[in-house]
Specification:
globular, two-stranded antiparallel sheet, mainly alpha, single chain, 2 strands
């Protein structure tokens, strides 16, 4: 609740500053909004999360391993703000994200394995780095309509806490802080959005959520770590593959994600995000069930995501009344 209130107030404050500085996202042919909108709420939301995590680490409520993650996320926030304002080459961004993932994996406890020992340690760490860097990037790619990133962040955070409860441990305080901050931002970002997150928010939030999911997988809850972000993973990965096969430049903006297809059919932002939120509720329940039944829960999650993607595609073909 403290993170939620802090995010509401901080976002309100940064909104006024962004307007005064005329830091606006102007619509273009690839945009999903129609009027210039302040962009940069990550300058408010991410510090709330980082300060919350730092407070937890200082009090001993969470492991000291989180300190390097806080530092790396701070660097990613600053680099992403520079990218928002001036633009960075895609290769530079990718190199920074890979370096951040490498350092993050080095912060995992000795012997931690996201593959549950199925891969040799070196291969396991390489897999973790690639998965983490991809997740941070796809989280940024998917931030394209009002309310979607706040909803996804809150869903994953609450899902991680739910899995912890089912396991008989305390709810993950880092996940709850992040979920609370996401809900606070969502108050300002729900359709019609008054402010956008920007890369300064989506990249570090994706990195922080990636840390929580990698940690979860290393503790043995690999199925839950795949289930909770399953919609984002599926939409971003399928879209990337389709664009690659079409010979498109993958680093350029586009409107081919499933949620964007639904918008083209006439659905508004709020309707699309409600469908995603409904699927995420089912994914949270399945992630909790995966503690005892990982494979059946993972199969069921695949069906939920497939149904959601099919629904979004159908909405793109059938204009809303």
């Amino acid at each position: 609740m403290a993170a939620l209130v802090a995010a509401v107030l901080a976002t309100r404050s940064i909104l006024g500053w962004l307007r005064r500085q005329a830091i606006l996202d102007h619509p273009n042919e690839r945009s999903s909004h129609r009027i210039p909108t302040p962009r940069g709420a990550g300058l408010a939301v991410v510090p709330v999360v980082l300060l919350g995590w730092a407070s937890l680490a200082s009090s001993g409520a969470v492991s000291a391993e989180v300190w390097p993650i806080i530092a790396i996320a701070t660097v990613l926030m600053l680099v992403s703000w520079l990218d928002d304002r001036r633009g960075l080459h895609a290769g530079i961004r990718l190199a920074i994200h890979l370096a951040a993932a490498v350092i993050g994996v080095m912060c995992l406890p000795e012997g931690a394995s996201i593959s549950q020992g199925l891969l040799p340690p070196v291969a396991d760490h390489v897999l973790a780095v690639l998965a983490w860097a991809w997740f941070a990037n796809l989280f940024n790619f998917m931030d394209g309509i009002d309310g979607i990133t706040g909803t996804e962040s809150a869903s994953i955070g609450l899902g991680i806490a739910a899995v912890a409860v089912v396991m008989g441990t305390d709810p993950s305080p880092e996940a709850l802080v992040l979920a609370g901050a996401a809900c606070g931002f969502l108050i300002w970002n729900w359709h019609p959005a008054k402010i956008f997150l920007g890369d300064v928010g989506s990249v570090p939030l994706g990195y922080l959520l990636g840390w929580l999911l990698i940690e979860m997988a290393a503790r043995g809850q690999w199925a839950a770590a795949l289930i909770l972000p399953a919609y984002y993973l599926a939409d971003a990965t399928i879209t990337l593959v389709r664009r690659a096969l079409a010979g498109e430049k993958l680093w350029q903006a586009h409107k081919r994600h499933f949620y964007q297809i639904a918008l083209r059919g006439g659905a508004n932002h709020a309707t699309v995000v409600r469908w995603i939120a409904g699927a995420n509720i089912a994914l949270i329940a399945l992630a909790a069930a995966s503690v005892d039944h990982p494979v059946p829960a993972l199969i069921a999650a695949g069906l939920v995501v497939a149904a959601l993607l099919a629904q979004l595609a159908r909405m793109g073909r059938v204009p809303s009344p």
